[in-house]
Amino acid sequence: MIDEHHIDALTKLLGDKGVVTRREDMEAYEAGARYDRGRAAAVLRPATTEEVSAAVGYCVRSGIALIPQSGNTGLVSGSTPDESGSEVVVSLDRLTRQFALDLDNRSVRVDAGFRLSELNRHLEEHGLFFPIDLGADPRIGGMIATNTGGSRFLKYGDVRRNTLGLKVVLADEAGTVLDLGSDLRKNNTGVDWKQIFIGTSGAFGIVTECVLNLERLPKQTAIAFLVPASGAHVLPLLKAMEERLGAYLSAFEGMSRNAIAAAFAHVPALKNPFQGGKVPDYVILAEISRTSSPREGEQPLDAVLESVLAEIWEMEEVLLADALVGPPHEIWALRHALSEGVKHLGKLIAFDLSFRRGDIMAFCDHMKTEMPEKFPGVTVCDFGHIGDGGVHFNLVVAKDSPLLADATFEQRLREWVFAVAVEQYHGSFSAEHALGRRNQAFYDLYTPEKLKNMAAGLKTLTSPGKLGSVRFG
User: Fold this and answer.
1) Which of 29, 114, 298, 420 has its CA 20 to 30 A from that of 411?
2) What is d(CA 55, CA 154) in angstroms, rounded to the nearest whole number?
3) What's the predicted TM-score (pTM) here?
């Protein structure tokens, strides 16, 4: 348990700005992005890798439990302390000093505390960006720890694919610093150790510095809302577009009517492009892009998209009911408003699932049929990254619903959804939100014992101290 002696020692290591103990000042670090709230013993705010190392080493030697926290935008209780009041939050919000751009290598070396928006703002003047498109604005260290994907995964891949190197502080008595900060894209000289720290929720070490691959900003974009005749026609539509557009296809996002209607209700400024204002059962957002400037005589992307859609329209297996080509900023505004809209409908019970691409719509259609039978009063508001098999399967219950009076309701609902997703459709219970206290039980349930033992061994090898909210063994 942390006491005044520990606070004094940590203040000597980090300075007055580096240690927060006033209850009102810790509140922002104790509350999650959506619904979790804990109680911290203190918040540490180191400003350099050396300070992270000194503070972590001290805490491990003193038996103090640490919770790494980046932008605190996660949704699975992975970045907030529990309710015991004994855990110390290690925030990355002051790790923002280093920003070293290598234009020749098309990479950047950056401290882990930079927010995604801030990073891309620095890169924009050079015609570059870090190609992970998210509705939230996380810090880079948290993106590494959770291996985020986003709306343009289809073209650019996830954080793992775009990470060249890392610097990591281990939770051992020395606060060991591992420099895995290679700027190389090819380095096949043994184990790629940085991968251990990507997507493992900060349990094996705290990322303090990253070397990231960058991409050219698109200079031409065309986008459309597509309305398939049914869920069964979504995959044929995706395959037809991939075949005709190749690497031009940068996003293929699915949105259910309930999710879209929630966005319109919560954000009145959004434009409703659908005929008569009637929202279809399911809508696809399809985007194509080029990084080159328009050339004389080259067909504009809007024309390319319209030509491809006209060709696809004649295909019996696709069955498009409607297509609306429009301004990219208006179409993306609706997509990015979905999360906030759904959150304001009532009690939100969110799932981050992934499937083989051929199973994702079958799962969604199955659940929409079964939900009224299994859990009447629960509304499905799904949307997600159909091009890569991911879906944000959001369930909403009215705030005055009698279901919420049942203490077992949410747990039963979660167990059923995960059982169908994992056991029946062979999907993942965490597509890109990683692990936290909220889904720990399902990691324990669905991970083979041998793999849990291997993960626990890695945890002991890298960070034997009390680090993170996840138990890997």
Assistant:
1) 29
2) 39
3) 0.93
* Cβ atoms of residues 79 and 70 within 8 Å: yes
Residue 468 in tokens: 């993170």
Question: Residue 176 has what DSSP assignment?
Answer: P
Measure the CA–CA gap between 67 and 43, rounded to whole angstroms. Answer: 9
Q: Specify the DSSP element, H or E, that contains 470.
A: none
Residue 431 near residue 149, CB atoms below 8 Å:
yes
Contact 92, 55 (CB under 8 A): no
Q: How far apart are the first and last CA of the chain?
A: 23
H-state helical runs in 247-354 = 257-266, 301-313, 328-343
**Tens of pLDDT, residues 309-363:** 999 988 877 888 888 887 888 899 999 999 889 988 999 999 999 999 999 999 9
CA atoms lying within 13 Å on the CB side of residue 286: 31
Backbone angles phi, psi at 280, to 5 degrees: -65, 165
Helix (H) or strand (E) holding 120: helix 116-124
Residue 205: left if φ>0, alpha if ψ -120 to 50, beta else—which one?
left
CB 236 within 8 A of CB 139: no
Sheet holding 206-213, edge to edge: 99-102, 107-111, 206-213, 163-169, 177-180
What's the CA gap between 431 and 281, in Å, rounded? 24
**Is residue 255 over pLDDT 80?**
yes
Residue range 155-189, pLDDT digits in tens: 999 999 999 999 999 999 999 999 998 899 999 98
The mean predicted confidence, pLDDT, of the chain is: 93
Report the chain's C-alpha Rg in angstroms.
Answer: 23
**Does 243 score more than 90 pLDDT?**
yes
> How far is residue 472's CA from residue 139's CA, in Å, rounded to a whole number?
24
Show Cβ contacts of residue 281 under 8 Å, excluding neighbours closer than 6 positions.
230, 256, 257
Task: DSSP letter for 324, please.
Answer: E
- pLDDT tens readout for residues 37-49: 889 999 999 999 9
Structure tokens belonging to residue 150 = 């986003």
* Token pair of 294 as six digits: 């328009």
- The position carrying tokens 């929202």 is 279
Q: Which tokens hold the place of 22? A: 């006033």
Q: 51 Cβ partners below 8 Å, 6+ apart?
A: 13, 14, 18
Name the CA dihedral angle for 404, 407, 411, 412, rounded to a multiple of 10 degrees: -80
Q: Are 312 and 320 in contact (CB under 8 A)?
A: yes
